[in-house]
Amino acid sequence: MKNLRPIHIVGNWKMNQTMHEISEFFIEMTKMKMELKCKAWIAPQALHIAILKEMAFTTGSIQVGAQNCAEVDSGALTGETSPLALADMGVEFVIIGHSERRTIYGEKNELLNQKVLNALKNDLKVIYCVGETLAEREANDTFKVIEEQLNVGLHNLPADKAHLVLIAYEPVWAIGTGKVASAEQAEEVHAFIRGKLEHLKDETVILYGGSVKPDNIDSLLRKDNIDGALVGGASLKAKDFRQLCSIASVI
Ligand SMILES: O=C[C@H](O)COP(=O)(O)O
Asked: Is 170 assigned a catalytic role?
């Protein structure tokens, strides 16, 4: 079944990169002239989406997305990003429910559900993130927490939009800490998530995120239910991002 699902390497640049660094990234990517056999996506901060779309166009194979969007299309929401505007700009995907949005900005499953449904209404692909904290894992609550995140966050998901949804499993304790979940730990949760999906069980891409690097991605991608990676730190430099994509292209 894994071959039904293209491998995705998604760079989440978070609140990083200057214009100079972005130019360097694309100069390096263009020099490498790599034929990508995996899907390579990047989510820069909102301010850089338009310029990245132009630069990505020249490399031909990188899709550009957003790291977050509002739960409605327009209105008096200072500082928010409209999913309608994202779709209008030709943005391909949006990350919703990243653990940094959940923990730092207090976004709850109910709000995330509104965001997911509204992004889908605008035909954006959605990477919906789930994952447990260290305290939840140690209390043996991993599956309970993730089930709740899936049940509430994907409530009322229209069957005809399910093909636009990807899931990212990101154990919070592995994000930016250098502690990657073992391939076995990740696969156990990915298989659980797949079992809980109501629509498109076999077709839905499930990414792993949390300290993914060129030297640990191979064993993760070899697992049946791990279809790619959501990568923070190691997506910022073209050399690492390219290496991740090269490894993903031969799995
Ligand atoms: O969205 C990406 C994740 O938060 C992982 O970040 P990281 O690769 O820097 O641990």
From this structure: yes
